[in-house]
Amino acid sequence: MWEPRAGRPFGFGRIGLVVKVPRPDGKYDIFFAKDEVPDDFLEVLFSLRAQKTLIHPLELLGIVAPYLCPELAELWRDADVIHFGDNEAANGAAIKGTSGARDPSRLALLLHTRLAASASRVWIEWVCSAGNIADDPSRDEIDSLLAMGATQIHFTFPDLLAKAGL
Q: Which domains are delineated in the chain?
């Protein structure tokens, strides 16, 4: 999520993700993360492309985020993954691995680099916003996840300038 905020030139953003991992008993292990986007990360996004809102790159970061979680790194090794996202533009950039704009292109490149390194096979599918459980932690609504026994994890924000060699 992203919204404008007084006193914050690049607004306020929060990333949320939910990962459901099937178990042999037919149940799931559920992991979630919610992290406020640091101001310096928002500034880098804006420096790559001046824009009115930062929702598009943050939606794409939400797709990349599970693959940046140290606690889940082994989960992605040689894995088949179905990934749901509710933003068609972000899904498209993630699927193609590029975009006409610099900020989503850097994020898409990072995603494909991570997937290649882990030998993951990922299928990205659209889900309507009302059905997107990952929106809950991005809005700081985690009670239902905790009631399901979900485990909170964290991810590392990437250094987008380092990826470009700047």
A: 2-157 (3.30.420)
